[in-house]
Design goal:
The complex is a heterodimer. Chain A is an alpha+beta fold. Helices cover about 20% and strands about 40% of the residues of chain A. Chain B is globular, with a radius of gyration of 24 Å. The chains are: A alpha+beta, B alpha+beta.
Chain lengths: ~475, ~450
């Protein structure tokens, strides 16, 4: 399966020619062959193993400002031609154009040694689940429920367009997650931890599932004694690797060119302006090998890049896909992504991270007389047009007199992107990344987020105390 | 129309080998989506898709069984191609071998409850020409843009519809098929005044394009965006919060995840052990009724092919029951409430609600505001998935809306959170509106007032 092409080049050329028969500026075939497998242990039982397969192609035709799109699970020439004609229905010109499409050489990428998921015995994956379950339950009698999941996917993509682009990628991803419930006098609390890499089963040679389980269990246990989080504006110290989601929401989405070109972002027209504290240098980088948002080509066939978005507080550039880049007469920045062949690509983040600073993380805490230390953030959400965003804590503590003291119950933080970015007054050296799933316009894609320990002088914390 | 799908599902079920049970879910659908921008079509998507999900259950008394109980495995594919279905069946069989034997695991079997005949299909989805659908999206975009001089941008204006057919068959006697259509108009407006920018979303939903009311979507989006202009943070403090019907629909959906019998039997619900107890204010009666055709989530059959039925979960504030699928019901020593839900062909059944309705009161929204007098009106919330925990009940969400002063809506407020616990919120319901709206998702909504919530701002 590895060596056979999803669709032969001559078929692609004929399909692309057909797609442009009624006019149009660009036609593209995005073919995908995905297999996934997963297993869940819950309530001490291996409850379910699942396998999935999805194979098909999405075809788009761009004519001026209009995009036509159709997809099919039928990868024969007949199936592809039918989808091409459906996508071409938007072409305004009509008529019968003869367009010869010639593809360039196939851009392929050596991804190095990886363990292909279906070569791993199922029993080996299941052993990880029971090991994690045992580890989580041994963390304390108060742990009353444990759910463990392991999953992997292989996604082979092939992209060809009428400009001659011809590229493919073979993406392997592996994830492992543990959720614990702890039960105490004040009710139940949950703790969650995950590992997710754009790599194969070999990640478990380097990562012990027991450690993931212990982290999840400790998180749930700590919160059993937690007091309600404070209400109102407080200084926040975010632990390294805990909260890259902050930048993902506070400015990442707002720097996506589709929002910018529709004037639906607070960052529209701000290139060259100071939009953050000078301590902020923010990068989106799909090239970081193994990170959750890594790939060899994006879902439009373009290679990823290390794109500096904010440098020392000054906005340097936005993120671009093919369509939005074309409007501004520039190339894609390697940020054209889609959930599957059922979807149109749009501008998406990859691995978005703040470069490390120079301070000692312990020193930042020690120099915070009063505030909240956020050890782990959950998800978030942003309104790009207003810049207002929220992100939730899943492990947080009070800081009193420069020391971490009592644990706090979960709460959301709310802030305004540009304001919060200006209030970052310390960045440490302890950089780390975390995986996440980013949702936009109904599509989910894997992304990475990263940052070192940092302090924000004031954010509104939505507790009840 | 779904007969050929049911025949396909049945033909796969007939391949069951001795010692195994099979359940086969097949689906087919057509989706159309039009996005308009600046008077033109930005994108037009039209596509068919299909898929299969197969569960294999190796019977506990099979010769190779090592322990008491059955083992289940699952596989899915985004295709109804015969070769793909055969490979999927083989995958599911292999997966089943590795599950832990479980005496509670069985497939649903007909339970004698007759399914209600629901007509959820509107031929208008198929018969309306694409040109008309395009026109609806473009007109919505143009009308919203010119509805108010303060509307600076319309970032998206979409028409979308879908036709979905599902068939489910099993060796345990399940044989059901259903079909449904839906159509949406939605629009996002951005209003501006000076440097201030605010947004508002509006939509209209129906079974077909003929039921859609473009003005409803437009008016909602424009009102929500423009009335937020000039919004500021508010001082922190405790107050009564009045929630908009759309927010209430979301809140009920969150509460319902703790009413899932599956969450209860696995010790993940704050309602565990509270059956028969008062868990909410006495005005609260919460019913899940998928047999009501007006509900967006209406369905004749559940995700295991059993008849959907009306379930009264909370009545007069007292917790009456949980919703169950077949397996969680057996674990709890009861029977399925016809409440299996599954996320399409790629998902397996779990217990959940589809068509929740909080019994409406008599008061309209204005009367409720007058009654509350002083407080906060919340028109939208954010961070539901990051700030609400249905296991612990902790609740903290971002919010925007307007202050309530002297019984009327006053100045707009943004960048605040409202917080409490779900347990306390249910007990603190002080008014339930009569303005019930049938909304997309698993719950209808109406205006709702909850006392003593924590507002966090300055």
């Amino acid at each position: 399966m590895t060596d056979t092409s999803l669709i032969e080049p001559d078929v692609l050329e004929r399909v692309l020619s057909t797609a442009l028969q009624a006019g149009g500026d660009m036609a593209e075939v995005f073919a995908e062959d995905g297999v996934t497998s997963g297993a869940v242990l819950d309530d001490r039982r291996i409850e379910e193993l699942s396998s999935g397969r999805s194979r098909g192609a999405g075809i788009r035709v761009v004519d001026g400002e209009t995009t036509g799109f159709a997809h099919t699970a039928d990868l024969t020439e007949t199936g592809l031609l039918a989808a091409a004609r459906a996508a071409a229905a938007v072409a305004k010109e009509g008529g019968d154009h003869v367009r010869t499409v010639a593809l360039g050489p196939l851009a392929d990428h050596d991804r190095g040694q990886r363990t292909v998921p279906n070569t791993v015995e199922k029993a080996r994956k299941l052993e990880l689940l029971t090991r994690a379950d045992d580890a989580a339950r041994s963390a304390g009698d108060a742990i009353t429920q444990v759910q463990v999941g392991v999953g992997d996917s292989r996604r082979r993509v092939l992209i060809a367009n009428s400009e001659g682009l011809f590229a493919q990628d073979d993406q392997i991803r592996t994830r492992f997650n543990v959720q614990c419930v702890a039960n105490g006098d004040t009710g139940m609390q949950t703790g969650y931890e995950s590992l997710a890499r754009t790599e194969g089963f070999e990640i478990f040679d380097r990562h012990r599932v027991e450690d993931i389980a212990h982290t999840a269990a400790a998180r749930a246990l700590a919160k059993l004694n937690a007091r309600p989080a404070p209400s109102g504006e407080v200084p926040i110290v975010l632990a390294g690797g805990s909260g890259g989601i902050l930048f993902h929401e506070a400015c990442g989405h707002g720097l996506e060119a589709d929002h910018i070109l529709k004037d639906a972002s607070v960052y529209t027209g701000q290139v060259g302006q100071l939009v953050a504290s000078p301590l902020v240098t923010l990068v989106d980088d799909g090239t970081v090998l193994g990170e959750w948002g890594n790939f060899a080509v994006d879902d439009e066939g373009n290679p990823p890049a290390r794109n500096v978005l904010i440098e020392n507080g000054v906005l340097t550039d936005y993120m671009w896909d093919w369509l939005r880049g074309r409007k501004e007469g520039r190339k894609s920045s390697g940020n054209g992504r889609r959930q599957s062949y059922h979807h149109l690509p749009m501008v998406r983040m990859t691995n978005t991270y703040l470069l490390a600073g120079t301070e000692d993380p312990d020193e930042i805490i020690a120099q915070t007389p009063h505030g909240v230390y956020v050890k782990k953030l959950g998800g978030g959400q942003v309104n790009t047009a207003t810049g207002d965003f929220v992100f939730g804590t899943t492990e947080a503590y009070l800081i009193e007199n420069g020391r971490i003291t009592e644990p706090l119950r979960d709460a959301n933080l709310i802030g305004n992107g540009p304001e919060v970015l200006r209030r970052i007054d310390a960045v440490a050296t302890d950089f780390d990344m975390t995986p996440g799933t980013c949702g936009k316009d109904g599509q989910s894609v894997p992304v990475g987020c990263g940052q070192a320990t940092l302090r924000i002088t004031g954010v509104t914390l939505g507790g009840t105390a | 129309m779904s007969d050929d799908l049911l025949a396909l599902a049945t033909s796969v079920v007939e391949r069951a080998q001795s010692g195994e049970s099979l359940e086969v879910y097949v689906t087919r659908g057509t989706d159309t989506e039009v996005r308009a921008y600046e008077g033109e079509v930005e994108s037009l998507t039209s596509a068919d898709s299909s898929g299969v999900g197969i569960r294999v259950l190796l019977d506990g008394d099979a010769p190779d069984a090592e322990a008491v109980g059955s083992r289940v495995g699952f596989a899915w594919a985004g295709s109804l191609d015969p070769d793909v279905i055969a490979a999927t069946l083989a995958d599911a069989r292999d997966n089943a071998r590795f599950a832990t034997p479980d005496p509670y695991v069985v497939f649903a079997a007909p339970d004698g409850v007759a399914a209600v005949d629901l007509d959820l299909w509107d031929d208008g989805v198929a018969s309306t020409p694409i040109e008309k659908k395009v026109e609806m999206a473009v007109q919505l975009e143009c009308a919203t843009r010119s509805a108010d001089p303060r509307v600076r941008q319309v970032s998206s204006a979409d028409y979308s519809d879908s036709r979905t057919e599902v068939a489910l068959a099993s060796t345990t006697g399940i044989s059901s098929s259903r079909r449904r259509t839906s159509a949406f108009l939605s629009v996002d407006a951005i209003a501006g005044e000076g440097a201030d920018t605010q947004t508002g979303a509006g939509f209209s939903v129906g079974r077909g394009p003929g039921e859609l009311i473009a003005d409803e979507a437009m008016d909602d989006a424009v009102l929500r965006a423009t009335r937020m202009l000039g919004a500021q943070k508010a001082p922190s403090g405790r107050c009564t919060v009045v929630f908009d019907p759309r927010v209430v629909s979301t809140l009920i959906g969150v509460v319902s995840s703790a009413l899932s019998g599956e969450a209860v039997v696995k010790g993940r619900s704050f309602f565990d052990g509270r059956l028969g107890e008062t868990v909410a204010a006495s005005a609260v009666t919460l019913v899940d009724d998928p047999t009501d055709a007006r509900a967006f989530g209406a369905a004749s059959h559940d995700g295991e092919g059993l008849a959907c039925r009306r379930n009264v979960l909370i009545s007069d504030g007292v917790l009456r029951m949980f919703v169950y699928d077949t397996v969680s019901a057996r674990r709890a020593g009861t029977s399925s409430t016809g409440s299996a839900v599954r996320g399409g062909f790629a998902g397996t059944p779990g217990a959940g609600c589809r068509a929740l309705v909080l019994s409406p009161g008599d008061a309209g929204a204005e009367e409720i505001l007058a009654m509350v007098g002083e407080g906060l009106y919340v028109q939208s919330v954010s961070g539901i998935h990051s700030g609400v925990n249905p296991v612990s009940g902790d609740f903290s969400v971002g919010a925007e809306g307007l202050m309530i002063r002297g019984g009327s809506l006053a100045e707009p407020i943004r960048e605040i959170t409202v917080a409490s616990t779900l347990q306390r919120m249910l007990q603190s319901v002080v008014a339930i509106g009569g303005d019930l709206r049938w909304l997309p998702g698993a719950a209808a909504g109406q205006t709702l007032a909850i006392a003593d919530m924590q507002l966090s701002g300055e």
